Sequence to fold (299 residues):
Amino acid sequence: MAELATQPVILAREGWSDYGLVDSGDGRKLERYGPYRFIRPEPQALWTPKSTDWDADGEFVPGADEDGGGRWQFFNRVPAEGWPLSWPNGPEHVRFTAQCTPFRHLGFFPDMAPVWQWMGDKLAGKRDASTLNLFGYTGVGTLALSRYGPVVHVDASKKSVAQARQNAALSGMEDRPIRWLIDDAAKFTAREVRRERRYDGIILDPPKFGRGPNGEVWRLEDNLTALVGDCRKLLDADSRFLFLTVYAVRMSSLALGGLLAELFADLPGIIEHGDLAVREDGEQGRLLPTAIFARWAAE
Fold:
């Protein structure tokens, strides 16, 4: 029976050569993405910035409503088509294009770096592990997983999947056994259950709200339990992990852990929960929380 660890875990890491959290505070953060620096809103940065002089190339100015919206304001020239970055994945590098998107993101989520590393640790030594990446976005996590075996990448956005394929080519990984699917994550997972498929590992990073390619409506509070339940049916005692992240919701990581504890009660292993965070650059860099997570691991 999988044991639920009651003490929360902080899963964080420092930046690397192509990314770093330079400073944060007063509800904003300053980050470096390769040669460029950007300011973005960050409600959880409740403290005071270390510096009052943020030299940035651009800033995302949020809209008036709390559900999103806003625009980029640029102070220097930034390539509209994006620029190449990379993330070190053991002996290889996953390469991808960073770009200022209308949704305030820049083409990848740097706080997921320790998640990708943790999944790699769970699959260490394998070359035929079958993994599933739901809500896979631009594919950095998929490419990291492809080092260990075939991956199924699912996202409802045609544009995101196209970018993921381009990132695979940029990384020299276009020939790896990856299935790129434009599909509704919940419907696809339900079909996989009916097909009696199994996976060695699953990562899912669902939004608070979204729409599938055919107009399917996704609401996290309404649909998450059923989706994770179907994911559980795709795993067995020989599987290695499931990793779930949740952003921008009024929910505790302990609630996510409790959900996994119920659904994974018949499997061995451990269930942990906590915060994802990014550490600021420098010796005394503060931890900036970005999301909550829950994960099951066989050992």
In short: The radius of gyration is 19 Å. The domain at 3-297 is CATH 3.40.50.150 (Rossmann fold). The mean pLDDT is 95. Residues 220-233 form the longest helix (14 residues).
